[in-house]
């Protein structure tokens, strides 16, 4: 239960930080800024979704994690790691081709990695994992 | 690997949640097992078979 509450607290802090940034930053409405905010919201939504799943498990008196959920998480982590390596190669290529600053590229890279992990997790969850 | 979990649950009048609670997993794991989207560990297969009072090979089968 403590971990569940921690997830919600961190999600709330990230949301507040994002809101403060959006309000105070001099955003020009560029595509990459919109994509950054959208990506952050997707990652945040995923974190909240995981928190809700954990909370529901607590209320149902069933284990928050079991062998299937742990295996899916491990598989998603390893898959997203491999994909992220190639993703960073693309980011390095784009760093020469675009006028984006280093901190924007790094931020986009981190956001990309989070999205890759979310999509990996979702894909494995939908397809299942027969371990054959 | 195939299994007869759904059939045996109906015979023993167990819901997915009840079976999950008896073997110590999430209901989602039972759903995945019944849909054939997940193969259980040996321990989980053993625990499920014990609930149904059957040998493992009568609950889980490998197609020839």
Describe this structure in words.
The complex is a heterodimer of chains A (132) and B (64). Chain A is mainly α and 132 residues long. Chain A has four helices and no strands. The longest helix of chain A has 31 residues, at 67-97. Chain B has helices spanning 5-11, 16-23, 27-34, 42-51, 56-59; strands at 2-3, 60-61. Chain B has 64 residues and is mainly alpha-helical. In chain B, 58% of the residues lie in helices and 6% in strands. At the A-B interface, α3 of A face α2 and α3 of B.
This entry's quaternary arrangement is heterodimer
Q: What sort of overall outline of chain B do the alpha carbons produce when their principal axes are compared?
A: globular
- Written as H for each helix and E for each strand, in order along the chain, the element string of chain A is HHHH
Helix content of chain B: 55-70%
Count every beta strand of chain A, where a strand is a DSSP E run of 2 or more residues. Answer: 0
Radius of gyration of chain B: 10 Å
Distance between the termini of chain B: 10 Å
User: Mean pLDDT of chain B, as a whole number?
Assistant: 92
Number of strands of chain B: 2
Count of separate DSSP helical elements of chain B: 5
Provide the low-confidence segments of chain B as ranges: none
Poorly predicted spans of chain A:
none
């Amino acid at each position: 239960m403590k971990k569940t509450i921690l997830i919600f607290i961190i999600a709330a802090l990230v949301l507040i930080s994002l809101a403060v940034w959006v309000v105070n930053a001099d955003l020009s409405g560029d595509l990459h800024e919109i994509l950054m905010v959208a990506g952050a919201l997707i990652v945040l939504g995923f974190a909240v979704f995981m928190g809700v799943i954990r909370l529901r498990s607590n209320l149902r008196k069933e284990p928050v994690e079991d062998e299937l959920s742990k295996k899916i998480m491990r598989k998603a982590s390893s898959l997203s790691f491999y994909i992220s390596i190639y993703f960073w190669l693309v980011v390095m290529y784009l760093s020469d081709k675009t006028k984006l600053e280093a901190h924007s590229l790094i931020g986009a890279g981190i956001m990309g990695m989070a999205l890759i992990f979310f999509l990996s997790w979702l894909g494995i969850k939908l397809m299942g994992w027969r371990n054959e | 690997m195939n299994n007869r979990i759904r059939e045996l649950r109906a015979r023993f009048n167990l819901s997915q949640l009840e079976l999950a609670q008896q073997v110590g997993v999430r209901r989602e794991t039972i759903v995945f097992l019944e849909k054939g989207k997940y193969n259980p560990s040996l321990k989980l297969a053993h625990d499920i078979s014990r609930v149904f009072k059957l040998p493992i090979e009568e609950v889980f089968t490998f197609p020839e």
